[in-house]
Amino acid sequence: MKEGKVPADVLSKFVYTNLGLKRSDVLLHSGIGEDCSVIEVGEYAVILSSDPITASNNLSGYLSVIISCNDIASCGAKPIGVLETILLPSGSDEELLHDIMKEIDRGAKELNVEVLGGHSEVTSSVNKPIISTTAVGMCKRNKFIKTSGAKLNDDVIVTKSLGLEGTFIIANDYYDILKKHISLKTLDNAKSFINELSAVKDGLISAANGANSMHDITEGGLLGAAYEVAEASNKGIEIYNDLIPIREETKIICNFFNIDPLKLISSGSMIITSSDGSKLVNELKKQNIEATIIGKITEHGKFLIDKDKKIEILPPDSDEIYKISI
Question: Which of 56, 136, 214, 257 has the greatest count of CB atoms below 10 A from its CB?
Fold first, then answer.
C-alpha cells in the first residue's frame, strides 16, 4: 500500500469486517467517511474521534489537538477534551517531550478543552515523533450530524480555502528550500495559515443552521472528502472547479512541487451539505468565516466539472503531500 490513508476498498475488506459486537447504544458506527463514533448517554450523545499526526515535522503537538477537535465539530458537537499518545524515537531528550506538550497545551487552551490523559513512550519503532489523539465531545442526542447525511439536491459548501493545512506544512517544513524560489512574503503568508486550521467554529455554526452532512477535509483533500461524503450518503456529487476557493500561496507552492491542491490535506476547511446553502453561507459569513457553494448532491455519479469536461472523482489515493521529494 502507498503512504497515507489505507484505501477504502482495503478498509471495507479487512477493517470494517472485523469490528466486534455492534452495540445498540452506539448511534453512529464505523464506516467510510465517518470520522467519529457516537454513543448514547441518556439525552446526550458522546462523540469520539481518533487521529494521528504523521505528515508534519513541526508543531505536530498543536496540530494533533486542532485536527482531532475538528472531527468532533464536524459531528456538530462541542469538543470537551483530548487524550494524547506520544511515541518518541530512541535517544530523544526530555526537551522534545516538553516542546510537544507545550504545543498540545497551546491548542487545548485555544479550544477550551482539557488534556484528559494518554500515554508517552520512547521506542525504536519510530524514527520521528508520532502523536495520536483521541478527542471527546458532547451534544444533545438528536443533534449530531453524520457524513452520511447528505440529501439529494443539497448544496455543497466548503469553508475558508482549500489546502490550508498542506500549504502551511509544506511552507514550514521546506522553508529553507522554498525561499530560494518563492518570495518570503508568500512563504510567511503560507506559514500564517496555522492560525486558520481550527474548523470547530465552522462546524458548530453549520450544525445550528441547517447542515445535513459535514466532513473535515483532511488527507486526500477536497476530492477525497467529496468522494467520502457521496459514498457514505449513497448519493452522487458534482463539484465545479471554477467555484473552488484556493489562495494564491497554495497555488504557488503546489505548482512548485507539481502537486494537486484539490488532493492536498486541507484541515481548517469543512465540506458541508445543506438544502439551503445560501442561508448557511450567509450565517457563516456573519461570523467572519469564508464559505462558498461549490457544487450539488446528485442521484448518482461523482464528478469534478471543469469547463466542458466531466472528470470522475475516484476513491482518495495517497495525499499529495507524500509525493514531495527533495
Answer: 214
Report field, pTM of the whole predicted structure over 0.85:
yes
pLDDT of residue 56: 67
**Residue 226 neighbours by CB under 8 Å, 6+ apart:** 156, 237, 239, 271, 295, 302, 313
pLDDT along the chain (326 residues), means of 10: 82 92 94 91 96 80 96 97 96 95 97 98 94 97 95 98 96 95 97 97 97 96 97 97 98 97 97 98 97 98 95 92 85
Question: Which one, of 156, 160, 154, lies nearest residue 226 by Cα?
Answer: 156
pLDDT value for 217: 96
Residue 147 grid cell: 457524513
169 and 187 Cβ atoms separated by less than 8 Å: no
Predicted local confidence at residue 32, as pLDDT: 84
Give the domains, in start order, of the chain with CATH numbers.
8-140 (3.30.1330.10), 147-323 (3.90.650.10)
Pairwise CA distance, residues 36 & 71, whole Å: 7
Q: Are the CB atoms for 74 and 35 separated by under 8 Å?
A: yes
In angstroms, the CA 134 to CA 55 distance is 18
Q: What does each C-alpha distance from 128 to 99, 124, 318 come to in angstroms?
A: 14, 10, 20
Give the count of beta carbons closer than 10 Å to the beta carbon of residue 111: 23
Residue 43 corresponds to which cell in the numbers above? 439525552
Tell me which residue has cell 476513491: 315
List, edge to edge, every strand of the sheet that includes 270-274.
Answer: 211-216, 270-274, 155-159, 291-298, 236-240, 302-306, 309-312
